[in-house]
Design goal:
Layout (H helix, E strand, L loop, with lengths): L6 H8 L6 H6 L3 E6 L16 E6 L2 E7 L5 E5 L13 E2 L3 E3 L6 E3 L4 E3 L17 E2 L1 E4 L2 E5 L17 H4 L5 E8 L3 H6 L46 H7 L4 E6 L3 E9 L10 E9 L3 E7 L2 E11 L2 E10 L6 H9 L2 E2 L4 E2 L11 H6 L11 H9 L17 H18 L6 H11 L5 E4 L1
Antiparallel strand pairs: 1-11, 2-3, 3-4, 4-9, 5-6, 6-7, 7-8, 10-11, 12-18, 13-14, 14-15, 15-16, 15-21, 16-17, 17-18, 19-20
Bound molecules: FE2/S2 (inorganic) cluster and fe (ii) ion.
Length: about 450
């Protein structure tokens, strides 16, 4: 008999605000808060003279700016004086100044001037705008929002994943907003059964036509290895072998997922099995292979309980990445400067019944598989109602991950693992998760 989740548990799993159990877990970890390119005047001309923008992270409204020393500073959006909105602050190079009464904050958040106060006032020395440490990795600005709640603790070490160690020539970062809770966005990545359906192409393309640099061309290139000397496009693997056996392995950094698709399950010898190995890095990141020489690391930043930015870092272990081509491919589907997708609920995610009948299983385009996942997770509603779902055997990784997430919340509340993020970061220091996608 299927056990249904109760509403309280669904709320606990999905909330990220300050003071919630899920929010406490998220605040243990470095979070992506912007792409570095968002501060490039070529991408956003407003950044030429005023490199400052409002960002929303874990339900908190913040401002992010790059000072003239090149450092990113992140602080609360409401001025520590009387709460005016610092998204409209004057940018002064070494800090920002609130236009209401002229209070100035250095990049550290320290108030350094209160010009309306009497001469000789030392008030500013006692005022600090809540601020958060930042670091830049692989074209992404990360911040740690744990500091204000744990003023004595330092941020955890940064995870030593391949995507963060790669040189700038071999990685490329992009992001996009989905109108839904982070957990359902993440769960699509630990669901190895869905590509056989959601991303199914009814026809294969010539393997010579699939460039490894094409960000949207997942499942079009060849699987590693061969079947009786023949290379198979991933589209064929996914279409013809659609009952994967899914295994999960708990690791020091999260979970390794192995999806086995047997080509000749009845054979007693010379069994051929397509194997796809992916990873979940706690709490909201997955790593999947895009081709034999490229991986995607996707982090799901909870903007708040009902909006998510996915940050994808494409990492090549082979040739340098053609950044311009990669960006152009993604930019075609994206509105700037907010990185919202051009397709969505407003246009039925580009759905075509003709296409569904003749070319793809879903009917939402062949160029960009990202919109397929977007439909899956947005069409559930802003927060999926897990009280009415019915999980099957193929949802095993999702069920296990939820249990793990709830355990982490409980342990954190009981203070038995206050250094959860540190332990998991150490896990990624100790081992580099390797992905695989092919026959063996
Ligand atoms: S509210 Fe910002 S200076 Fe007064
Ligand atoms: Fe997908």
């Amino acid at each position: 008999m299927i056990q249904h989740m109760d509403q309280a548990r669904n709320i606990k799993l999905t909330q990220v605000g300050a003071g919630t159990p899920g929010g406490a877990v998220m605040r243990q970890f470095w979070q992506p808060v912007a792409l570095v390119e968002e501060f490039d005047p070529a991408v956003d001309p407003r950044m030429q003279d005023r490199p400052l923008k409002a960002v929303r992270v874990l339900g908190e409204d913040l401002v992010l700016f790059r000072d003239t020393a090149g450092q990113f500073a992140l602080m609360d959006r409401h001025c520590a004086h009387r709460g005016a909105d610092l998204a409209f602050a004057r940018f002064e190079g070494d800090g920002i100044r609130c236009p209401f009464h002229g209070w100035k904050y250095a990049s550290s958040g320290q108030c350094v001037e209160t010009p309306a106060e009497p001469t000789g006032s030392t008030l500013c020395q006692r005022v600090k705008q809540p601020s958060y440490p930042t670091t830049v990795r692989s074209g992404v600005v990360f911040a740690w929002l744990g500091k204000e709640k744990n003023p004595d603790s330092a941020p955890p070490p940064f995870p030593a994943l391949d995507c963060y160690k790669a040189s700038s020539t071999h990685c490329f970062a992009f992001k996009g907003m989905w109108q839904c809770n982070w957990l359902q966005a993440f769960e699509v990545g630990i669901d190895p059964a869905h590509p056989s359906f959601l991303h199914r192409f009814l026809h294969d393309v010539d393997l010579e036509d699939t460039g490894s640099n094409a960000a949207g061309k997942q499942f079009r290139s060849a699987a590693a290895g061969n079947v009786a000397g023949e290379r198979w496009p991933m589209s064929r693997v996914m279409r013809e072998l659609c009952q994967p056996e899914i295994k999960t392995l708990e690791t020091s950094y999260g979970m390794q997922l192995t999806a086995l698709r047997a080509l000749n399950p009845e054979a007693t010898e010379d069994k051929i099995t397509h194997t796809r190995i992916t990873h979940a890095v706690f709490p909201h990141t997955f790593i999947i292979p895009l081709s034999e020489t490229m991986t995607i690391t996707q982090i799901h930043l909870p903007i708040d309980d009902t909006h998510t930015y996915w940050y994808s870092i494409f990492t090549s272990t082979g040739e340098a990445i053609n950044h311009a081509a990669m960006r152009e491919q993604r930019a075609r589907h994206t509105n700037f400067p907010d990185y919202t997708p051009k397709s969505g609920k407003h246009n039925q995610w580009g759905f075509s019944a003709d296409e569904q009948a003749s070319r793809t299983y879903l009917g939402m385009g062949e160029d960009d598989i990202n919109v397929h996942d977007q439909w899956a997770v947005e069409s559930m509603g802003a927060v999926q109602d897990r009280t009415s779902e019915n999980l099957g055997t193929s949802d095993i990784a999702i069920a296990r991950y939820r249990r793990w997430l709830l355990n982490a919340m409980d342990q954190l509340e009981a203070r038995s693992t206050s250094r959860l993020a540190e332990a998991l970061a150490q896990g990624t220091l100790a081992v580099t998760p390797q992905t695989f996608d092919g026959f063996r």
